Inverse folding.
């Protein structure tokens, strides 16, 4: 509006001025030698205006002629730049869509039109990555480091390329250089934290974490939690060598994250080792109220060395009273009561956990109570059979991997603070092969390292087998030594009140079977004899196990066993003609070794009212009836 008004005013003023000049009477006299002109004032003004316009046109024409080469060059340059920008745009689109051929073509076009443009270098480098030419991509990224404008771009490209090639050390160096150049870059700081955590360089990781906190790359709450985890890892590493520094790190971790169980466990352990029982109990109780855990109960039980089992039980009861009704509190009291042989307290603590579907640990503890208190082997086997199919207990789980102990980072991906104390679902469990594959994909291990480790493991197994073959005793001497060893174990069990007299007689029958063997077994030379020898050993082992499981008179069982051995020897002679079905790759010594390991385990006779389980389940389950110490 103002512009329109100003334009109208200017037109009106010009019109008024021209009309005023036209109305004026007068002449302009121009004289020169030989002539004179007397135009009117209006004519003089028009002539002057025309001369000025012609002069301006001539000057413009002169400039156009003088600047035409440069203008032509600028025109060509602009056209070339336009083509380069179009090539860059099309190349980036081809990269995003995964079109390798078009990306290479547009990268070549951009190199011709815009050779010094940073975007051209980026397009060429990423096109080379897509093609698989890592050498060319590395060279292009390194060329970006020469300029301060493209240095960070080159460092990020080299970092990503190093991660793709599992060169963790190189990636860490590139990330560290990027942090030094630009600490405000989140990707560089966070990447350096992850890489140093995977390398277990806890001190250096703490330094980078402080940088991330100062520049707000991590929320304050998460930064405190990560710092607590790193301090706990540092305390666990220095606990045996530098106890004072480990204690200060653990105490700071407890202050930052009171519910972090490993931090309280380490602090309590160090306090207890220094004789500061009250400080240890205080730290344990504070964490127990937030997150009850078996490790906290262990530290609390042994906070003062030299205490009796009754003192430990009372201390555990006091700790459990802070969280009444909690599952871990009941399990801790039951375990301490079993150690103190207070069966009534142990049963009372486990009684609320028996409702519904008890867990594996509850069933195992009940089996221990029945074995030690009532010596009822039928009840023991019943609880152990229930433990096989019971609900699993909580454990440290990280990305599907179940670990016995807490760790600051994941064994699969190396991420920080991923372990959780929870019940591992069966669909999340990770096998050893899957764990190795995930480690390989995450860059924690290399294919060369796995190959070398496998070669070393194979060599160790070969040496072990060779040593066993050279130092292995003969079968009869080995069986005799085994029976004597088992007989000693049974005598010890009888003293403890865990084995009945009938079971002792059954084992005496087994000794008689061994003494009745007059022929010494010789290792066969041919594969057929090896196969038949393995069958004979299996038959003898089965006979021996049958003698252990049946509660009958020793003399009668001895006669039946001798007859069975004779039958097995007859089957051995008949089987020598069946060489076509013999397994030529199965040595007899290997079978003997497996059988000897299984027959070392004592299997008690079934109770009259016991429904019974499979023999293999009995053998595997009885391994769980071992004292669980705090």
């Amino acid at each position: 509006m103002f512009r329109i008004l100003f334009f109208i005013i200017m037109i009106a003023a010009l019109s008024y001025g021209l009309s005023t000049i036209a109305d004026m009477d007068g002449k302009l006299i121009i004289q020169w030698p030989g002539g004179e002109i007397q135009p009117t004032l209006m004519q003089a003004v028009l002539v002057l205006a025309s001369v000025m316009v012609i002069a301006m046109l001539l000057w413009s024409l002169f400039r156009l002629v003088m600047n035409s080469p440069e203008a032509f060059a600028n025109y060509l340059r602009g056209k070339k730049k336009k083509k380069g920008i179009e090539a860059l745009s099309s190349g980036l689109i081809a990269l995003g869509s995964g079109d390798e051929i078009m990306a290479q073509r547009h990268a070549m076009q951009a190199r011709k039109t815009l050779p010094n443009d940073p975007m051209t270098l980026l397009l060429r480098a990423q096109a080379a990555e897509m093609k698989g030419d890592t050498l060319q991509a590395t060279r292009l990224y390194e060329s970006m480091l020469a300029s301060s404008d493209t240095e960070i771009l080159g460092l990020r490209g080299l970092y990503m390329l190093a991660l793709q090639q599992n060169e963790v050390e190189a990636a860490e160096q590139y990330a560290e250089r990027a942090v030094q150049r630009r600490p405000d870059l989140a990707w560089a700081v966070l990447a350096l934290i992850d890489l140093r955590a995977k390398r277990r360089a806890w001190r250096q990781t703490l330094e980078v974490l402080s940088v991330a906190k100062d520049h707000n790359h991590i929320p304050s709450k998460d930064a405190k939690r990560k710092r607590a985890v790193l301090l706990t890892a540092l305390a666990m590493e220095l606990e045996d060598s530098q106890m004072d520094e480990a204690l200060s790190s653990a105490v700071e971790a407890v202050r930052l994250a009171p519910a972090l169980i490993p931090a309280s466990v380490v602090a309590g352990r160090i306090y207890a080792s220094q004789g500061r029982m009250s400080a240890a109990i205080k730290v344990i109780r504070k964490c127990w109220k937030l997150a009850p855990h078996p490790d906290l109960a262990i530290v609390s039980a042994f906070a003062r060395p030299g205490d009796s089992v009754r003192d430990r039980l009372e201390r555990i009861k006091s700790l459990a009273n802070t969280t009444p009704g909690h599952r871990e509190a009941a399990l801790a009291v039951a375990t301490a009561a079993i150690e103190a042989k207070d069966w009534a307290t142990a049963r009372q603590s486990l009684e609320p956990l028996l409702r519904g579907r008890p867990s594996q640990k509850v069933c195992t503890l009940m089996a221990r109570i029945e074995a030690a208190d009532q010596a009822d082997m039928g009840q023991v086997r019943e609880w152990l059979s229930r433990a096989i199919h019971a609900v699993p207990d909580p454990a440290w789980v990280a990305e599907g991997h179940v670990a016995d102990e807490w760790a600051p980072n994941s064994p699969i991906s190396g991420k920080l603070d991923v372990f959780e104390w929870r019940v591992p679902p069966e669909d999340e469990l990770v096998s050893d092969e899957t764990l190795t594959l995930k480690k390989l994909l995450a860059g924690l291990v290399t294919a060369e390292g796995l190959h070398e480790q496998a070669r070393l493991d194979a060599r160790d197994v070969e040496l072990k087998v060779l040593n066993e073959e050279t130092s292995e005793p003969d079968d009869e001497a080995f069986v005799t030594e085994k029976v004597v060893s088992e007989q000693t174990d049974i005598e010890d069990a009888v003293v403890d009140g865990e084995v009945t007299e009938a079971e002792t007689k059954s084992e005496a029958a087994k000794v008689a079977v061994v003494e009745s063997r007059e022929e010494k077994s010789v290792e066969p030379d041919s594969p057929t004899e090896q196969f038949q020898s393995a069958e004979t050993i299996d038959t003898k082992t089965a006979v021996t196990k049958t003698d252990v499981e049946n509660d009958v008179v020793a003399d009668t069982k001895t006669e039946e066993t001798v007859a069975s051995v004779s039958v097995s020897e007859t089957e051995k002679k008949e089987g020598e003609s069946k060489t076509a079905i013999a397994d030529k790759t199965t040595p007899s010594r290997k079978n003997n070794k497996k059988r000897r390991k299984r027959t070392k385990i004592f299997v008690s006779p079934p109770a009259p009212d016991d429904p019974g389980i499979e023999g293999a389940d009995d053998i595997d389950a009885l391994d769980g009836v071992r004292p669980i110490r705090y």
In short: Residues 474-599 form one domain. The beta strands are 30-32, 35-37, 395-398, 401-403, 420-422.
